Amino acid sequence: MIELGKSHSIIQQMERLGVKILGISESHWKGSGKKLIPDTTFYYSGSPESDGVNYHGVAIAVDKTINNNVKHFLPLSNRVCLLQLNAQGRHINIIQAYAPTMDKDDEEVEEFYRDIAAAMRLTKSIDVTIVLGDFNAKVGEGSQTEVMGCFGLGERNERGDRLLLFCQENKMILTNTLYKQPKRRLYTWISPQDKPERIIRNQIDYIMINQRYRNTVKSAKTYPGAYIGSDHSILIADVQIKLKKLVQPKSRTQIDVRKLQDLSVKGTVFQELNENLDTISMQHDAGQVEENWLTIKSALLGPCNKHLKRTKAKREKDWMTEQILRLMEVRQELRDRNADKTKLKELNNKIRYECRQAKEQWLKEKCEEIEHLQTLHDAHNMHKKIRELTGSKKQTTHYLLNECGDIIVETDKQVKLWEKYIEQLFDDDRVNVEDIETPTGPEILKDEISYVINNMKKRKAAGPDELPGDVLQLIEEKHLDKLAHLFNQVYTSGILPVDWLKSTFITLPKKQNAKKCEDHRTISLMSHVLKVLLKVIHKRINKKLEENISETQFGFRNGFGTREALFAYNVLAQRCLDVNKNVYVCFIDYNKAFDKVRHNRLINILKEENIDTRDIQIIKNLYFNQTAEISVNSEISKELKIKRGVRQGCVLSPLLFNVYSERIMAEALEEEVGGIVINGTHINNLRYADDTVLLAENMEDLQGMLNKVIRISEEYGLTLNTKKTKCMIVTKRNNPPEQLIAGGDIIEQVGAYTYLGTRVNSSAEYLPEIKIRIEKARAAFVNMRSLLSARDLGLETKTRLLKCYIFPILLYGVEAWTLNKECEKRLQAFEMWTYRRILRIPWTDRVTNVEVLRRMGKQVEILEEVKKRKLTYLGHIMRGPKYKILHLIIQGKIVGKRSVGRRRISWLRNLRDWFSCSSQDLFKAAINKVRLTLMVANLRHGDGT
Predict the structure, then answer these.
(1) Under a CB-based contact definition with an 8 Å cutoff, are residues 763 and 730 in contact?
(2) Which is the most buried residue in 233, 369, 423, 456, by most CB within 10 A?
(3) Residue 109 CB: number of other CB atoms within 10 A?
(4) What does the angle CA 89 – CA 634 – CA 404 come to, to the nearest 5 degrees?
């Protein structure tokens, strides 16, 4: 199926032969999902996207006339998939299979049949179940039995016995052995060694149906004359079953904010929306918050429903041309007439050539569109077009597994499973917190609201109130008084409208092949008007709460991020090894930390902070009265009470979680004297949100800290995931393993660990991480090679795509890197590898790197970029007063004794060697912006001083 034009040829044969559903073996499409080509839907299941090769693969092509009857698609493996259709009074289950070939061992064959059995368990006895595909088995001729007819072909083999056993166990019958046919209508495969004088043709493809429905099959035979570009013949069974007439359910009106790009539409919505706001009057009674909200909501939503309704997008034409389709028809005509094989071969070559030309022309046009969008500075649509061309798609969960490991495919049952999971996850015996008697907090100003609305991100999904955030930016300044009035009513009374207390959970897979509810992340979609209010509150309380958050917390804080956490960990580990001091590390992994925050504890913590009581009251009422519904395949669950956890997707959640986790660590480690001592300061933890690293100089101290953290965390509702929590000893020596225990479980000691997306190891070496980053960047390049190696895309645009999509993957965490000569060589080699593929230079041409750079019109830049970023980052942290902990780590004194001989390459030594400066000179230059800028500029000239 990966051959150009193959899918179009198959569609042509489906139309010619009147086939509505076609099973395909050896599709060689990676991943799973569905493709529309051009009106026929291909449901496919192949090897994982992460695999380097696309072995096997199965697919089912469904004609557009019955595609609406498809209920479920279940990709079980790259050999088995299930498609379920609605029929009258029952379902039709189509199981497409591709069995291992004869050279594979029996265990692989049994695994294949286990996959089919898993699909069969999802069917009901009343359903029509059809199993079809290439089984690489010969059942042979013989007398009629309950599982086969007497019109097989050839002699039975062992795989044929296994197939018949499957039929007996599942009460299936082989339909293409039931009817007397000429042998040319029985064989399904022609051997490559087949010759007129030595015919080698076998029956190894079958269509099976459950025995109770054998009378629905009117015929089953092959069509060897149909050209499908395969050594297999197309096998067709005429099955007569009435499909269910479907009534399309009424769905919610979807608002398409992209229509606001049309200035006339935007002007109309702007005018009507503000006219509506001009005519409404606000109620002043504190108890009429709900009425005021519904009035404003109606005024804003009316023009949206009228002018911004989502319309079905017109499908873009693919690269296939009418001329090629006509050539395919001619090829079939030649085949029907048994034309000379030479003519047929010439026509095949011509079709392949025309397919390549058409695809290249289509790609050229798309590249021109990307170039045009770039000149217009339309980044959103440009990157959208790039994703379309590179085949980037969202991960899809086709089915779920329940607690017993059973596969759940029906949407209504998945909804029930999610409801049960959400109720258990967010259930808590919380104690209500008393309201605050003395309200404090200034009224919300129109300027605060205006600032937040003007800085809102566009094209964000709407919450349960269906009001998009983009529309709020159309409100005239004079009408923001109405919104300010509503906000102040809510702020002073503490009463929130019902719509604001609701949220819709959408689920995102946390990993590939996520099959259980816990393998997903739930994101809350909430009212954008509520988000405006919460953003105003966030701006008021953020600075006050930040004052009490430890310097070792790098997550969700202004000016901090993963690079600070990685820098702190890596430089600290290196400096300890320099003085022969081992570092005992515990990487703590909590069980769904954000979802386990106890609301009463959170509110009590906020009461102890120096923030206005009205802000606390809004947060309390929001968290204690919130409900949520979950969206599964466009089906909405019942409303569920959320009794714990911070709302992922809410602007306040990161700040609230930081305050909560800070209290846990403060209570657990406030009297702790362990950790790494630098200039008399104890550093015993580094944190990025809930990713916590405990640090100690020996295992005894680490065990003591871990025990305290576990005890206090459990008091606050957080529990450790002992399977994912790991410990590591960073050392120069091969020390014997030491035990770390958590809750009776022994924590696994590892030699390497993935921390914040980078691979850290027990020797504090960076070469393994550099190798990983290069391979990830290489995989991203290969995924985009259709664009990056396209002849018709300009070199400037390719270079921009390289910098935008590939180099950021390579350079993630670069500020914390420590490079030796081998690392530098590998980075330079990868850079040249990308340039050679962009220029389409084969290795046989023996083009030098100097010539490659000349053609690219640039210098080697990856290593230069690394040097620039590390130096710039040093200046960034040295000039920032908020980075005191990083100053301490890089400049402070760690007690210990260095080994005799040459010192290890360190983070700071990289800069000393690159810029020919001492450490003191580097620190002085770092705080001088002008000198630092000159040093960066001189890099290009080979002089960093």
Answers:
(1) yes
(2) 233
(3) 21
(4) 70
Residue 397 has pLDDT above 90, yes or no: no
Delimiting residues of CATH 3.30.70 domain(s) in the chain: 567-591+657-761
Residues 810, 116: Cα–Cα separation, whole Å? 41
Beta strands (DSSP E) in 322-450 are 400-401, 407-408
Residue range 567-591+657-761 forms a domain whose CATH class is: alpha beta
- pTM, rounded to two decimals: 0.85
Q: What is the mean pLDDT of residues 160-181?
A: 93
- Cβ atoms of 709 and 703 within 8 Å: the answer is no
Which residues are registered as beta bridge partners of 245? none
**DSSP code for 222:** E
590 secondary structure, DSSP code: B
Q: Which two tokens stand for residue 74?
A: 């279940």
3-state secondary structure of 80: strand
Side-chain-side CA neighbours of 297 within 13 Å: the count stands at 20
Q: Would you say residue 925 has pLDDT above 80?
A: yes
Residue with tokens 């609406």: 68
Start-to-end C-alpha separation, the chain:
58
Residues 6+ apart with CB under 8 A from 232: 25, 134, 188, 189, 190, 205
Instruction: Name the token pair of 815.
Output: 């500020």
Q: What per-residue confidence (pLDDT) applies to 51?
A: 63
Give the separation between CA 906 and CA 440, rounded to whole angstroms: 52
Residue 288 CB coordination number (10 Å): 15
Q: Give phi and psi for 244, each to the nearest 5.
A: -80, 135
Half-sphere exposure of 214 (CA within 13 A, CB side): 16
CA distance 82 to 313: 29
Q: Which of 8, 13, 12, 5 is nearest to 235 (CA)?
A: 13
Q: Provide the 10 A C-beta neighbour count for residue 261.
A: 11
The one-letter code for the residue type at 284 is: H
SS (H, E, C) 879-896: HCHHHHHHHHHHHCCCCC
Phi, psi angle pair for 390, to nearest 5° = -85, -5
Where would I find the beta strands (DSSP E) of 442-499?
none
Q: What is the Cα Rg of the chain in Å?
A: 33
